Amino acid sequence: MVAVVKTEEGQVLGAIISSELKEGGHNFFGDANTCLFSLEPQLNVLRTSGLGRNFVYLNTKNKFHPIGLGFGGQVGAFRFWIGDEMKDCYITKSDCTYSPGRMLQTMNEPIPQGPDPLDSLSGLTTTVEGATATSSSSKPRADASVSPPSVESSLTANFLVPLNVKELEIWGTGDASTLEQQQQLLKQQEQLRQERRQVDKGRLLDSNFDREFLLGGTFSRAKGPEAPAV
């Protein structure tokens, strides 16, 4: 089975699911043959790493857990997440189940690093040498209170990338035997539906209560024309 997502920006990514897509509640399922991929703007395949077993997550009923389709990571922090009604979708850089790597080119920007100590020392030396020129200029106190974004916030923004999902398609895959099994399953389901629709009239006659109160008029007439109708 293949799940393919297209974003508003034209990016195409998805997952190949080697097992049956089934309701798992808050539990993961699947096997190591599952993988993640991206097609646009570049081709990239992320196979399982062998470290984790959180392959596929599907929940459509349990409102106490995230509702949607997820891959890898853990509940609430998936590697690839498609939320309910295709909202709040995202991808992350790494997890234990799938190989590390960035699925989309928008994640290929270098991770921001902290300031180099040598650069700070060089800047301090320059400031001391030009103390006279620096002291003659004044800056508002408000500028001194403005600090650049922290490295932690930059790393968080780089680790998780939101997705604006436009389309979602799920394709069934398999060989001739898989198709035959599917047809047999559909046939069994149809037989069960037909059995539920049919009423076994013979079972209604098992007791005198059913005969008198459910079909009393019918059996009264069967006794003869003088029998009173119920």
UniProtKB/TrEMBL annotation:
Residues 1-174 form the TLDc domain. Residues 122-139 have a biased composition (Polar residues). Residues 108-151 are annotated as: Disordered. InterPro entries: TLDc_dom (IPR006571). This is TLD protein, related. It comes from Eimeria tenella (Coccidian parasite).
